[in-house]
Design goal:
There is one protein chain. Mean pLDDT is 82; it is low at 46-52. The protein has a domain at 2-46. α8 packs across α9, α12 packs antiparallel against α13 and α13 (296-306) runs antiparallel to α14 (310-324). It is globular and about 90 Å long. It has 417 residues and is mainly alpha-helical. Strands 2-1-3 form a 3-stranded antiparallel β-sheet. The chain contains 17 helices and 3 strands. β1 and β2 (15-22) form a beta hairpin. The chain is 77% helix and 6% strand.
Length: 417
């Protein structure tokens, strides 16, 4: 049975929309017209792991949709764990969702839980109900639930999915906690520089103007920048916003995303942290999909959409094509020259022994330890480096401001002699 999303006008002219199950488009249209409704649109909601090549406009709309409808990973982790606990305790999915909806504090997610409960009452499977909310439940999430339903091991899959999401959340938290301090310092540095150019330099410029002395070139340049910022605040803000918007749109393009993601991976220390985090997510996702019995080609499709790095996505896509042509999984990944030798060795051993899911789980644990190690190293290095950066930049601006004073002092001392 396929799922169709419709928009109709009923006999009273009121507009309504929703979803229904039917074996074909014709059957869906028949069901709607039998009620005397006027059909505005009917579209199938069924999609595979790949959604095809999206235009830039589609990507912008998809990003806005996820921002508008999405919930935090923490909320999703808690929901999955609670659903697994209730289902394992013997409650029906419908009852479990009703209980979760009653206790949910997040208003946006509360509406989603209500809709999920209504869809289950209509006869939808849990995976079909989840598919109606792509901003919250990813293809990976839906595919794992679908695999659990097909194999009769939904409670086990939900347990594995809960642990997977918890570990992904933990790794994400560690990465962001490591990056939070440098991001804060850089933002603070921007504010300090802005205050210097907007308030401090003009004060010195007035004093120097009263003396009518010739100023050094660096000081003249600093005063010119300050005058531009003060005289064109609106344009300065507009330029900054335009730069960020241009970078955002560039990142949404395939080439732009590939360039920026590749650049991230090459940043000293931070690149190592991000790369190990990606490999951790790649290995853990691959492991849980193999454990759930998802076919290898579909697994690679889903993994490609989960890693969230264009360089790794392209490598997985190439590997998937090679596997389809007869290469081994380890051999295909090795050909891409992107994946580390440790991971390739574990995949190769897993193929030979038939325990790929377990060995990929070990690979995920290995990369998680590497993430912890890099975070410890980053914590010890980043503080002195940022202090040096801040001192160097702010100190340089202050020296440029005081250069005329130094020149004046030198002139006075020369005259005294």
């Amino acid at each position: 049975m396929a799922v169709f999303r419709y928009i109709i006008k009923d006999v009273k002219g009121a507009r309504s929309e929703g979803t229904l199950k039917a074996s074909s488009m014709d059957e869906a249209i028949d069901k709607l017209t039998k009620e005397g409704s006027t059909i505005i649109s009917v579209k199938s909601t069924e999609e595979g792991a790949f959604k095809g090549k999206l235009s830039l406009f589609d990507k912008i709309m998809l990003t806005l949709y996820k921002i508008r409808t999405g919930v935090s990973l923490k909320t999703l982790v808690f929901f999955t764990r609670q659903l697994q606990t209730m289902f394992s305790a013997g409650l029906t999915i419908e009852r479990a969702l009703t209980n979760l909806e009653r206790d949910e504090k997040n208003k946006r997610f509360k509406k989603v839980l209500k809709k999920l409960s209504e869809d289950i009452k209509k006869g939808f499977s849990l995976s079909e109900a989840f598919e109606q909310h792509p901003g919250i439940f990813s293809n990976l999430y839906v595919s794992l639930v679908k695999a659990g339903e097909a194999s009769g091991t939904l409670h086990t899959i939900l347990d594995e999915l809960s642990e997977y999401l918890e570990k992904v959340q933990d790794t994400k938290r560690k990465v962001w906690s490591a990056l939070a301090y440098p991001i804060f310092i850089l933002c603070f540095l921007v504010v300090v520089v802005w205050v210097l150019f907007y308030y401090i330099i003009p004060l010195f410029a007035k004093v120097y103007a009263n003396f009518g002395a010739d100023l050094p070139v660096p000081t003249l340049a600093a005063i010119a920048i300050s005058n531009f910022i003060r005289g064109h605040v609106f344009y300065a803000i507009l330029i900054i916003i335009t730069i960020f918007m241009a970078l955002f749109l560039f990142y949404l393009s395939d080439r732009g995303r590939y360039i920026i993601d590749g650049f991230y991976r090459k940043i000293p220390v931070i690149g190592s942290l991000l790369n190990n985090s990606i490999m951790n997510k790649f290995s853990r996702t691959f492991s849980i999909l193999m454990y759930a019995g998802v076919p290898i080609m579909e697994t690679m499709e889903l993994v490609e959409n989960v890693v969230q790095n264009a360089v790794i996505e392209r490598a997985v896509k190439k590997a998937r094509v090679m596997v389809k042509e007869g290469y081994s999984v380890a051999g295909a990944f090795k050909k891409t020259r992107v994946f580390p030798p440790t991971l390739l060795q574990l995949i190769s051993t897993g193929e030979e022994t038939g325990d790929m899911d377990k060995l990929l789980g070990k690979a995920a644990d290995f990369f998680e330890k590497l993430v912890d190690s890099v975070i410890d190293r980053l914590t010890s290095l980043i503080e002195p480096l940022l202090i040096i950066l801040m001192a160097g930049l702010v100190g340089s601006i202050i020296i440029v401001i005081y250069l005329p004073v130094f020149y004046l002092g030198m002139a006075i001392s020369t005259g005294v002699k």
